[in-house]
Amino acid sequence: MAASRRGKRFWIWLTVGVVLFLGLVVGGIALARLVKGSSIDPNRLTKVTRGDVTRSVVATGQIQRSPRSR
Question: What angle do CA 21, 22, 24 make, to 5 degrees?
Answer without folding.
Answer: 65
